[in-house]
């Protein structure tokens, strides 16, 4: 059984502010509560499918923030994986256990997103240390990888199984749920929004991103409750891996 290693959150000294990219006009901040009857939260509530129990009470004892973002450009658009800082953020979503709500951040509110992540007792994501933070970094004052306390479930599982697992594989095997779309859909919706000025494609990105945050949250809660996660191995069979993330 392997303990997840979190990056230290004690060193919160501020770093020199990185230059910000020019920001596109974005809609006013959208707020979504867990009881809102919007499409993505109807999906989220259906995913939860159970009353709060001992697990939810334990998780809510500290402020865990689940986090994901979608980009404006692909790796091909920016010249490869090493240029993640040029990909731009279309929409980011968090779920805070202290707040009990989802928060949707358009591009012009990345600084506020950074503040929420820095204040969290723990940020939980899927490859957010090596992807989401580098994409977010040009927008924010804080050095995200150094000034946040993190559990990157993908990286922790990689240490145990020896290769990188997809969130969809773990969620499907462990919980019987999967993603509702993929990153290519989010890129296409962003282009539709830019060309038309219509906010409906942007709402689709927000719904997709929020659903991924919900799946991330459910996977983490499952691991906390059962001390293991399931995944589809390279032969297509369901395997288990023990974790200790309490």
SSE run: EEHHEHEEHEHEHHHHEE
Give the strand order, joined by hyphens, for the main sheet: 2-5-4-3-6-7
Whole-number total of structural domains: 1
- CA-to-CA gap between the ends? 12 Å
What structural class do helix, strand and pairing data support? alpha/beta
Task: Catalogue the unreliable spans.
Answer: 1-60
- The whole-angstrom Rg is 17 Å
Describe the structure.
By secondary structure, the chain is of the alpha/beta class. The protein has a single domain (2-7, 27-165, 181-225), classed as Nucleotidyltransferase, domain 5 (2-Layer Sandwich). It contains nine helices and nine strands. It has a six-stranded mixed beta sheet, with helices on both faces. It has a three-stranded mixed beta sheet with strand order 1-9-8. The model is unreliable at 1-60 (pLDDT under 50).
């Amino acid at each position: 059984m392997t303990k997840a290693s979190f990056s230290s959150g004690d060193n919160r000294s501020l770093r020199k502010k990185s230059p910000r990219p020019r920001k596109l006009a974005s809609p006013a901040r959208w707020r979504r509560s867990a009881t809102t009857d919007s499409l993505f939260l109807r999906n989220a509530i259906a995913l939860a499918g159970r009353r709060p129990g001992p697990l939810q009470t334990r998780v809510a004892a500290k402020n865990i923030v689940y986090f994901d973002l979608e980009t404006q450009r692909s790796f091909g658009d920016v010249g490869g994986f090493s240029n993640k800082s040029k990909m731009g953020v279309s929409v980011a979503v968090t779920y805070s256990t202290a707040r009990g709500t989802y928060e949707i951040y358009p591009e012009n509110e990345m600084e506020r997103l950074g503040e929420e992540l820095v204040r969290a007792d723990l940020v939980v994501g899927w490859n957010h240390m090596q992807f989401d933070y580098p994409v977010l970094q040009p927008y924010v004052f804080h050095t995200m990888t150094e000034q946040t306390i993190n559990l990157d479930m993908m990286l922790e599982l990689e240490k145990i199984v020896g290769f990188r697992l997809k969130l969809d594989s773990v969620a499907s095997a462990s919980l019987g749920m999967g993603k509702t779309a993929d990153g290519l859909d989010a890129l296409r919706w962003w282009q539709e929004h830019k060309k038309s000025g219509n906010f409906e494609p942007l709402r689709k990105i927000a719904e997709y991103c929020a659903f991924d945050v919900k799946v991330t949250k459910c996977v983490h809660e499952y691991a906390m409750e059962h001390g293991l996660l399931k995944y589809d191995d390279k032969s297509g069979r369901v395997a288990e891996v023990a974790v200790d993330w309490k």
